[in-house]
């Protein structure tokens, strides 16, 4: 259960760390790699900075912040000067588990995974590709293109504070991206693929991460499209990679996992409530901004619950009644915690809700994966 809780924490934090900072710029600037260590210190206007300080002083890190939080890339982090610790912080390790869990689900769904040294090694390499490398790339590029809004909301973060130079960030983006795509190609060769499925999944996922944040498309500006893209990135893509590694990625699995990504959309909405004020200022149409917080709460829980009930119905229709019943059993506690925490106050009870409810959603993913493998 500890693994499931970590996976759920990763899933919610992954959505949090990406959807919570909704502005990202294009990847084109990283091509200029000069040797100068230019420090990037971006300052908001005096008026905006004062407003933010007055309204959200609790966002500033304590003088004695947590070194553990710093390494995980979450709030309450210690201000660090070690460049390698800062590099790790930018990749937000706390967001890796959902992708790792997705690979596990894909391997389980293939029905071909065996507990052999080779299969375990393949899984570990696929997890390394999906988590530290490509998720690390996504989080780093997200921070890079969010540097202007972070200068207003979280000026102490590594990039706007100048703790890491512009060129160091750009180099990290390219190393992680090329490393992840390179591992994807190796996995295709290792799996004996005639068509490099995993390579193209990695390439497509990396492109999706880019257009999610960068103009002219900047998917994250639209609450529906941006959050669905986020859900698909963290649920569907790693599942597809794990299944393609050990078996065949079939159209029905593609449809099923994309359907499940609607639940991921709901999870992403959970994290939009705490950034409503900033989204309004920046003109971003998150669902709480577009529909109002009360309506957005019900859109959120509806996306999570109706999606899972639909998957349960699919499993029942496919002749898997026990798996369908198990999935319904895992939905029930999620609904309970939605009423107990989230629907009462999505900002105040954000962490409690996600820590309580998300493990059941994550476990439901594995139940669905095992159902499709038999």
Write the layout of secondary structure elements.
Blueprint: H1 2-19, H2 46-55, H3 67-72, H4 83-91, H5 96-110, H6 117-145, H7 147-153, H8 158-161, H9 166-191, H10 197-213, H11 223-246, H12 251-270, H13 276-282, H14 287-291, H15 293-317, H16 321-342, H17 350-373
Helix pairs in contact: 1-5, 1-11, 1-12, 1-17, 5-6, 5-11, 5-17, 6-9, 6-10, 6-11, 9-10, 10-11, 11-12, 12-15, 15-16, 15-17, 16-17
Structure summarized in a few sentences:
The chain has 17 helices and no strands.
What does this structure look like?
The protein has 374 residues and is mostly helical. Helix content is 72%, strand content 0%. The protein contains 17 helices and no strands. Helix 6 runs parallel beside helix 10, helix 10 packs antiparallel against helix 11 (223-246) and helix 15 runs parallel beside helix 17 (350-373). The longest helix is centred in the middle third of the chain and has 29 residues, at 117-145. It is globular. The two termini are 24 Å apart. Mean pLDDT is 83; it is low at 19-59.
